[in-house]
Design a protein that fits this description.
alpha/beta, Rossmann fold, DNA Methylase, Chain A, domain 2, 2 domains, 376 residues
């Protein structure tokens, strides 16, 4: 393995630090060093600092870069919030605010980074604004490496979460002919499709060992039980949970117990099949969102118990290890979990970036050899 100094990483819109977790903890701290993280969510930054050191900043990114020097870095990672890629006011008449990808690109430029990793919703790549991102990147001397929508389950996360990943490299610093192809090869595959890779990891492999949750509040006990608490459902909610069979959803509730099915669901005879659904033991989870503790929001009932999944179960299905420290209220931690990038998936992106940086080093050595040869 090539020898390099630790690569300095800036994480923007960092949240709890799922991306940083993959880069820093996922590579055992060998290759990457986090030097700056920014997010407007105070609780998320407390979580970030509890895990990565006191360099996370609570700030409006636009205001922060106007008042602070930008440290030099090798890599900028992060996901500008998706609202920036779905503006209703396309021409922004009378609106002089910038989209959030713009300060993200400003920091890439001012930090002299060689690589950036932009993560977002799948709609990013088909948005008009992404063409602006691409144009700005090219003006800064970057080339984008086949931006793609990836399924995190294909990369070892127990969750079929799809995310857009766009990686840019400063082309003058790399030997472009040696750049590894993107996206990296998956490590797992849908078991229903032909192929030789191991099957997707399942819900059972990640949460089956947990006991029944205790109480309805976070507890001052060692993980994993600190976040393994339940809710206090009404008797009606409990009846509804019992009416949903293994793998079932709101349509099964309506079929089995129409008398306790919400009227709005009875009137809506079509639509998503995940609402009020149970997870399957032998499949990955659906996308874990910020309100995973509410079954009416998605397929968040336990595979066999008559309850929603707990915060600890959600964190595990997001691939956070039990020793990752979450700080905040129940709602704040749920938001941090649901908004995160699965660390196992981020680790695979980090491994790809390591290969990119090897190309940078080899290219730099070649240039140095040519320079010293010419001087001789």
């Amino acid at each position: 393995m090539f020898k390099i100094n630790k690569l300095k990483v800036i994480d923007l819109f960092c949240g709890a630090g799922g991306l940083s977790c993959g880069f820093i903890k996922g590579t055992n701290g060998t290759y990457f060093e986090s030097i700056l993280a920014i997010d407007h969510d105070r609780a998320a930054i407390k979580t970030y600092n509890a895990n990565f050191g006191e360099h996370g900043v609570v700030a409006n990114i636009e205001e922060w870069i106007a008042e602070n020097p930008i440290p030099e870095a090798d890599i900028v990672i992060g996901g500008p919030p998706c609202q920036g890629f779905s503006l209703l006011n396309k021409n922004r008449e009378g609106d002089h605010r910038r989209a959030l990808w713009e300060p993200y690109m400003d920091i890439i430029e001012r930090s002299f980074a060689s690589v950036f990793v932009m993560e977002n919703v799948p709609g990013l790549l088909s948005s008009d604004e992404f063409q602006d991102v691409r144009a700005r990147a090219e003006c800064m001397g970057f080339v984008l490496l086949n931006p793609s929508v990836l399924n995190t389950a294909d990369y070892g996360a127990p969750q079929t979460r799809k995310r857009a990943i766009a990686i840019g490299i400063k082309k003058e610093r790399f030997a472009l002919e040696g750049i590894p192809s993107f996206p990296p090869m998956p490590s797992h595959q849908n078991p229903d499709k032909p192929g030789s890779l191991p099957a997707w990891l399942t819900v059972k492999e990640f949460i089956n060992d947990l006991p029944e949750p205790v109480g309805t509040e976070m507890r001052d006990v060692p993980p994993p039980l600190d976040l393994h608490f339940g809710r206090n459902p009404t008797a009606l909610s409990q009846e509804r949970y019992r009416a949903v069979p293994v793998g079932g959803n709101r349509f099964d509730l309506q079929k089995n117990r129409p008398d306790i099915t919400p009227a709005c669901w009875i009137k809506k005879t079509s639509g998503g099949t995940d609402l009020f659904g149970r997870l399957w033991w032998d499949r990955p989870s659906v996308t874990i969102r910020t309100e995973f503790f509410k079954p009416e929001k998605g397929r968040y009932l336990h595979p066999e118990k008559h309850r929603p999944i707990t915060h600890r179960e959600a964190a595990r299905l997001m691939s956070f290890s039990d020793d990752f420290v979450f700080v905040g209220t129940k709602t704040e931690i749920a938001r941090q979990i649901g908004n995160a990038v699965p660390p196992i998936f981020a680790q695979k992106i980090a491994s790809y970036v390591i290969k990119l940086m090897e190309c940078r080093i080899q290219h730099g050595e070649k240039i140095e050899e040519e320079r010293t040869g010419n001087a001789a």
